Amino acid sequence: MLKINNLHAGVEDKEILKGINLEVKPGEVHAIMGPNGSGKSTLASVIAGNENFEITKGTVSLDGDELNELAPEERAHKGIFLSFQYPVEIPGVTVTNFMKTAINETRKAQGLEEMPANEMLKKIREKSELLEIDRKFLSRSLNEGFSGGEKKRNEIFQMAMLEPRLAILDETDSGLDIDALRIVANGVNKLKNKDNAVIVITHYQRLLDYIVPDYVHVLFNGKIVKSGGKELATDLEEKGYDWIKQEAEV
């Protein structure tokens, strides 16, 4: 579904990703771990089309279509969703209006009519209940005055509403207490199915106790230097990254 081939990318003249190869199939959960500065958030940004980063070599494809030249909104319409590490506040735009606009823009790009209001309300009700979101929350300005946990839960609510083909969660667990972490993880698990896929970027194994990955990849110095099953995350929790760095530098 997602295929990344020899991806090199950076910002201005600094190369950050130095030859990433990754394949993600429908129904899979991939975790990407690694020390600070290894390129994890850059990889998420490049897949989503952040224009601050330039691809200098290689390709990113979704369902066989190359994405390199597509704008972020075109990638979103194809089914790519990025949950931000630091979600931005948008005063004056309610959560509900934001979601209506996002869904209808995607439908328009796919040649569909706008979603009828009653269907939209039903979907909002279902997904907010799924994620244990207070209905009052939906009439507030997007992320304005939200706690860290509320912002992250709102990101997963957006994911639930948009039903992407590929969801990328960039350190969704940072700043969450254990209850918020559980709710966010439960939401992700309920949204997983055989037709979509999830990439989880995290520092900590604790999130992977709740969202169990099929594959774990370790990113170091702009390259995937080790891949394995969920037990690799446990090894990293116990031993840290020094042994990975030593292996990578041999």
Automatic annotation (TrEMBL):
Gene Ontology molecular function: any one: ATP binding
Swiss-Prot/TrEMBL keywords: ATP-binding, Nucleotide-binding
Domain ABC transporter: 2-246
Pfam families: ABC_tran
InterPro entries found in the cross-reference section: AAA+_ATPase, ABC_transporter-like_ATP-bd, FeS-cluster_ATPase_SufC, P-loop_NTPase
Database matches in PROSITE patterns: ABC_TRANSPORTER_2
Protein family according to the UniProt entry: Belongs to the ABC transporter superfamily. Ycf16 family.
Protein name: Fe-S cluster assembly ATPase SufC
Organism the protein comes from: Abyssalbus ytuae
The organism's taxonomic lineage, starting at the top: Bacteria, Pseudomonadati, Bacteroidota, Flavobacteriia, Flavobacteriales
